[in-house]
Amino acid sequence: MMQRSDRGETGRIGEREAERFLHKEGLKTLDKNWRAGHREIDLIMEGVDGIHFVEVRTLRVPNIHEPFESITRKKQMLLMSAARAYLASRRLYNEAIFDIVSVVLNGDKAEIQYFPDAFSPDW
User: Fold this and answer.
1) CA distance 26 to 36
2) Which three-class secondary structure string do you get for 75-106?
3) Domain 4-119 sits in CATH 3.40.1350.10
4) For 60, what's the count of Cα atoms within 13 Å in the CB-facing half-sphere?
């Protein structure tokens, strides 16, 4: 069984890999692990098309499902709520885009799947 500290380290590695990947996609980091109460946004990135709120999910091999499959409607609602708080706190009126980055770690390699505009806000 994976220890909590191992899970935390896996998550941190995944977020670093995701951020590196998104920089190559032309996005710029605005914030990392931004919190509003119990809600958290892993990466907040800026692109020419708006502000990207990015949920990063990471697993190590062997894995029985893909990391992105664990993002439920409840999690999406929490992300939208946190994004509203972020935009309000910064007085930003940019387009909000919700992306998912799925990272599978296999030794020292990271397999990344990027789902831009993965779901639409319902506000």
Assistant:
1) 26
2) HHHHHHHHHHHHHHHHCCCCCEEEEEEEEEEE
3) yes
4) 12
Exposed (0-12), middle (13-18) or buried (19+): which is 97, by Cβ within 10 Å?
buried
Radius of gyration for the alpha carbons in the chain, expressed in angstroms and rounded: 14
pTM: 0.91
Whose tokens are 């999406």? That residue is 76
Give the chain's largest Cα–Cα span.
44
The per-residue pLDDT for 123 is 64
Dist CA 90 CA 112 (whole Å): 30
- Tens digit of each residue's pLDDT (9 = 90 or more) over 58-69: 999 988 888 888
Tell me how crowded residue 45 is: count the other CB atoms within 10 A of its CB.
23
Could you check whether the bond before residue 62 is cis, i.e. omega within 30 degrees of 0? Answer: yes
- In the chain, where the domains are located: 4-119
* pLDDT value at residue 28: 98
Cα gap 114→27, rounded to integer Å: 13
